[in-house]
């Protein structure tokens, strides 16, 4: 199975294998050794499958995995910081940032939307960049995403990790 054509290929461990951490609502969470070019669906199978009743609609099961990546299954989106600017359960631009840094490598579109100034279109651009380039190796790569200028990058930098 060939990987994405744009950008460098994901790093590969010895023997043509990648190592991923599958966590959350799977039958056997933990480290999985998979062939290079494996997809999220392959990692889920290796972890014994998703637990019954788990919603995986936000998980792109067709995405090609990168070595060292974490796949989080069925966990709630990152919540806004307590005492922040978020209104009483409202959604959108008024939300405060997440309480812990959001992983650019594993976050869903919904999790990325919890970041200040990130709506559904920009969140999708962030995910698309990740898919095309085999993940994020540095937070600075966020500057290359369509729609992120210097000001937005400065706002997002302390709230994300590769």
Overview of the molecule:
- This protein is of the alpha/beta class and 162 residues long.
- It folds into 2 domains: 14-73; 102-161, Photosystem II 12 kDa extrinsic protein (DNA polymerase, domain 1), CATH 1.10.150.320.
- Helices cover 20% and strands 14% of the residues.
- The protein is built from 4 helices and 5 strands, in the order E-E-H-E-E-H-H-H-E.
- The strands form 2 sheets. It has a 3-stranded mixed sheet with strand order 2-1-3, covered by helices on one side.
- Strand 1 (17-24) and strand 2 form a beta hairpin.
- It is globular and about 45 Å long.
Please outline the helices and strands.
Layout: E1 17-24, E2 30-35, H1 40-46, E3 70-73, E4 102-103, H2 109-112, H3 120-133, H4 150-156, E5 160-161
Parallel strand pairs: 1-3, 4-5
Antiparallel strand pairs: 1-2
């Amino acid at each position: 199975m060939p990987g994405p054509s744009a950008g460098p290929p994901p790093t590969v461990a010895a023997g043509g294998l990648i190592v991923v951490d599958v966590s959350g609502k799977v039958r056997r969470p933990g480290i999985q050794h998979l062939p290079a070019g494996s997809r999220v669906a392959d990692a889920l199978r290796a972890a014994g499958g998703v637990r019954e009743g788990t919603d995986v609609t936000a998980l792109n099961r067709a995405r090609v995995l990168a070595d060292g990546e974490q796949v989080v299954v069925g966990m709630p989106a990152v919540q806004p910081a307590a005492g922040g600017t978020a209104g009483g359960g409202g959604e959108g631009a008024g939300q405060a940032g997440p309480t812990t840094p959001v992983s650019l490598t594993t976050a869903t579109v919904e999790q990325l939307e919890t970041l200040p100034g990130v709506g559904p279109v920009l969140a999708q651009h962030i995910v698309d960049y990740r898919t095309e380039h085999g993940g994020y190796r540095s937070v600075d790569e966020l500057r290359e995403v369509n729609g992120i200028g210097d000001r937005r990058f400065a706002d997002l930098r302390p709230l994300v990790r590769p």
